[in-house]
């Protein structure tokens, strides 16, 4: 067979499918690279945050504040039924607590504290305490008057309260406190974060006569939880 050395060899031109396949592979590679770098950057950020947190802990040894209930006096607790068969609750409570800042280098700046007294999810009274600064190794005394005037209760709430009032141990009372707190470290200040303080183990009774009824707080314990808000959710 004769082969002409001057003849140009035939090379098929790439089809549209091959060109599309190459572009698709190139696009996948770009996506993979973007994902890789994004994950790497996120890992580096988390690593730096962990290192910063470790340094902060070593330098300051941060501790949450502690709360304790000193006394709770119930000066008014009145359940009345009106002519339309609705039950109204009127109360007045005097609450005394103490909070301690156990830190040696951190200062807490509190916003106004909202205080709610409950019994098995039934709101008994509400009050507040103005914002304050808790210095290092400092104890602050909190006095607040909680009250509620002619609050309408549903049938289940009335039944729950009457049943608890007949108990020998008395009416179980829970104190909830919500506020925002800022942490100050030397010349640095943190953003304000929410905290919730829950105090349980309190048992009270209705007052007899003019003297207020003193609730039992010997077994009261308070728990402090951070309230971190992300978008519309609070954790």
TrEMBL record:
The name of this protein is Late embryogenesis abundant protein LEA-2 subgroup domain-containing protein
Q: Which organism is it from?
A: Solanum verrucosum
The question of whether Secreted is a record keyword is answered with no
In terms of InterPro entries, this protein maps to: NDR1-like (IPR044839)
Instruction: List the record's Gene Ontology CC terms alphabetically.
Output: plasma membrane
Lineage, uppermost ranks? Eukaryota, Viridiplantae, Streptophyta, Embryophyta, Tracheophyta
Q: Name one GO biological process term.
A: defense response to other organism
Record carries keyword Nucleotidyltransferase: no
* Transmembrane intervals: 30-60
- UniProt KW keywords: Membrane, Transmembrane, Transmembrane helix
Cellular localization per UniProt: Membrane
């Amino acid at each position: 067979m004769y082969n002409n050395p001057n003849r140009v060899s035939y090379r098929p031109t790439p089809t549209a499918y091959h060109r599309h396949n190459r572009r698709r592979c190139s696009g996948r590679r770009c996506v993979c690279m973007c994902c890789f770098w994004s994950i790497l950057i996120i890992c580096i950020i988390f690593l730096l945050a962990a290192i910063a947190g470790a340094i902060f802990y070593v330098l300051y040894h941060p501790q949450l504040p502690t709360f304790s209930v000193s006394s709770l006096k119930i000066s008014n607790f009145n359940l009345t039924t009106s002519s339309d068969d609705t039950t109204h609750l009127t109360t007045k409570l005097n609450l005394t607590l103490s909070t301690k800042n156990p830190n040696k280098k951190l200062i807490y700046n509190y916003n106004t504290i909202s205080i709610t007294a409950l019994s098995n999810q039934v709101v008994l009274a509400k009050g507040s305490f103005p914002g304050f600064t808790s210095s290092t190794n400092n104890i602050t005394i909190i006095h607040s008057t909680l009250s509620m005037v002619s609050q309408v209760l549903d049938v289940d709430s009335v039944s729950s309260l009457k049943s608890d009032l007949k108990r020998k141990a008395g009416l179980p009372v829970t104190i909830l406190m919500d506020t925002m707190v800022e942490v100050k470290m030397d010349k640095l200040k943190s953003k304000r974060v929410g905290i919730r303080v829950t105090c349980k183990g309190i048992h009270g009774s209705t007052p007899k006569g003019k003297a207020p009824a003193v609730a039992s707080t010997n077994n009261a314990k308070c728990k402090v939880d951070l309230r971190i808000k992300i978008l519309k959710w609070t954790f």
